[in-house]
Amino acid sequence: MVRAGEWSAVDILEQHLAAIEAGDEAIHAFNLVTADEARAQARAVDRKVADGGDPGLLAGVPVALKDNLCTRGVPTTCSSRILEGWKPPYDATVVTRLAEAGALLVGKTNMDEFAMGSSTETSASGPTRNPYDTSRVPGGSSGGSAAAVAAGFAPLALGSDTGGSIRQPAALCGVVGMKPTYGTVSRYGLVAFASSLDQIGPLATSVADAALLFDVIGGHDPLDSTSLNRPTPRVLSVIDDGVEGLTVGVLAEFLDGAAPDVADRVHQAAEVLAAAGARVEEVSVPEVTLGLSAYYLIAPGEASSNLARYDGVRYGLRVDAEDTVAMNTATRSAGFGDEVKRRIMLGTYVLSAGYVDAYYNQALRVRTRIIDGFAAAYRHCDVLLGPTAPTTAFALGAKTGDPLAMYLSDVCTIPSNLAGHPAISIPFGAGDDGLPVGVQLLGPALSEGTVLKVAAAVEAAAPPLAAPAPAPAPAEGVAT
Amino acid sequence: MAEPGRLTRDDVAHVASLARLHLSDEELDLFTGQLAEVLDHASDVASLDLAGVAPTAHAMAVVNVLRPDEFHPGVDREEVLAQAPSVEDHRFRVPRILGEAP
Q1: Is A472 contained in some domain?
Q2: Chain B: nearest CA to A439, how far in angstroms?
Q3: Which of A100, A233, A418, B90 has the fewest C-beta atoms under 10 angstroms from its C-beta?
Q4: How many domains does chain A have?
Q5: In terms of CA atoms, which chain A residue is nearest residue B10?
Q6: ipTM for the predicted complex
Q7: For residue A323, which residues of chain B lie inside 8 Å, CB to CB?
């Protein structure tokens, strides 16, 4: 509409900035709203349209960025005290591509510190609240991005997904969230958590919007040595092709741990796909039950190495001390929160001499088994279907004292990260508590087109979900 | 594969020092219990017989990624140094290094 000149980018932006102004005090989706920068981008888009130029695929569309995506000259904190005030000297590749496509970058969204968490409660800037019920968590770690889309602050957002950090908050906030195949979206400028698992992906209100955003950000990037140098599937054009002739496997292991109301929705989604012409069968991939344990050995191992760079020397926080080692220690002890410390120590332990074979190397072998297990299922299935998260959104504070209980909310999302495969969460009605339920579709590497096509069929027949209140009042009795 | 013994408070104190983290006594107690619980959960992995299974470090492995040997400008030095906590003569400044215990 902006490209056709029906709407001005400036008007669209101002509407969204007003929504953020009115509603984000209660939600806290944003760490930083970049209104001035976005206004300059909007004016540039409108000028281009007036001059008869092509303003790009996302012209005038507000997009929220998770606060672990580097933005040149604009603070990027990873919701950690250790990066407070840091202004990156370069843009992430996805940020560059969004700007080139005419998107309006409205702000940096709250997240679990360094993306370590499943509820956005480990953020040093305080938790984000679920727009559907502000006493509940939005999920995590991309909880700010999911809440921003659910609350209508931005129609699109980017998150990062290391063990479910796009899909789980998408499910809990009633929006679409996709983790693409590892290597299809450049990680250049994504602050690293676990490099072999991290992947940037879209959050949106519809499957078509998620596909469009993926088309804009995907593709080879020479600045990321793990970027796949092969054609990335262009997906927006295929999502309406229908599911006839496709085989959908309902993944038994994912249903085992799901709450009954969530499991019911998955079965209902399977019926929808059968009615749309897909072949639906039950499938077992026993290896996925080992995913959680393997992940919580591999991801902390990689994190302990990646986060060694925060030493108080080159950027971010420094707590002064008499010598360098004491300065490093004082800085890291003051700058990292408890969950990040736990993962660094866990990772250091599983990589240390005497334990690396029993834990880390063993987990890498389990990763092979999981990939083989999926491969066996994909010999007769095109996609797999299951829940995204075992339950709907839980209460703030419910799991913060019990790390293992928090980790278990990632049990259905982790296997796709270990395998490098694409997976998407689609809102599919509500649970018994009236809160959103997400169903998940998984596919083999580079099957985004198929996964999105099936997702569109699920979306088309999804039970209605009432929109969250536009500007919820702050919840009472919950610590801010 | 032999399973390691349960994580102790001394183990946590040791890895904390390796990771350059200082923990209070209360934090040591808390983290020891929490991390031991996570490692107990991981015993399903540690106890598996996976002899002969190749490890996977990267699911979509790419090898020998090279770029043409051409000049490209890097990030701006002044912009980088402007973010440092302490700078002297275009270099990062740190407290003394020599004469310390590791």
Answers
A1: no
A2: 24
A3: B90
A4: 2
A5: A349
A6: 0.93
A7: 95-97, 99-100
